[in-house]
Amino acid sequence: MSADRVTINEVGPRDGLQSQPRALDGDRRLAMIEALVAAGLRSIEAGSFVSPKAVPQMAGTGELFARLPQRAEVRYSALVPNVRGYELARAAGVDTLSVVLSATETMNRRNINTGLDETANACAELMARAVADGVDGWVYIAVAYECPFEGPTPPARVERLAERMIEAGARKLIVADTIGAANPAQVRTLTSALVRAFGAERIACHFHDTRGMALANVLAALELGVRDFDSSIGGLGGCPFSPGASGNVATEDVVLMLESMGLHTGVDLDALVAAVGRCAELLDSPLGGHSFRWLRRRAGPARKSDHA
Q1: In this predicted model, what pLDDT tens digit does every residue of 210-268 receive, in sequence order?
Q2: 147 tagged catalytic
Q3: Which of 90, 104, 108, 249 is deepest in the core (most CB within 10 A)?
Q4: Of the candidates 283, 260, 307, 247, the residue with the CA atom closest to the CA atom of residue 292
Q5: CA Rg, the chain, in Å?
Q6: What is the DSSP letter of 80?
Q7: Active-site residue, selected from the candidate residues 123, 147, 205, 239
């Protein structure tokens, strides 16, 4: 990848929707994804293969994947929690699968009711299976900076888990500030160690804006060579299993900052404004990052669907 090209992985359709009180049906989830594709987003987390009893917002993800707009340049990924989820995703034709490995004992137990070692073993087995099946396996290392139950996460533990996942076959490590507790100095420390060990091309970052530092954290990682970032349209999201995890960094904020710096995301900001409005309409809830109102004014007269 060119040094001035940045990949935006849009997580609104999964990480964004899973914490919403209103569950969108398949038609509305599809409409949301179609708006994202129209805005130029080419990496989209479209859903997860979890129990609909645990996360009803993700019910019907297999059927949704069958309906997604198919374009050669668009990559859709899905989260899988276990072997059963992996098998369902593969049966639905998903070829980019992610797993979540929390970096603390308590977070794993609260999230999936298994301990850290057991979860790491399960994730390693799924990564090895992905290699054997010829699909891309990604690993999210959650609460990489701070856990809502155990406090600050030791960077050395994150590094050990990252090494284990890479050895198991993970194609990408997504370092997740799950509760939005990180600051740029912490991001520089952890990211520089991971980049030295595995190369910037294997590292992505996932930031929440709980304390208003998400964009600063993106910049800190960017300066270390990371060119792959998760974000969520309108700042949508938060982890339902993690107290204090407010919305993800807003896609429009990240894209505006990167494009203003002369970097290239491939995203059309005006079309992204329309997508934010469309998503707000689907959820019947205001959405929008820090820059949304300015972007909407720049794009022209407000549309009825622009709720923020």
Answers
A1: 999 999 999 999 999 999 999 999 999 865 555 545 689 999 999 999 999 999 999 99
A2: no
A3: 249
A4: 307
A5: 18
A6: -
A7: 239
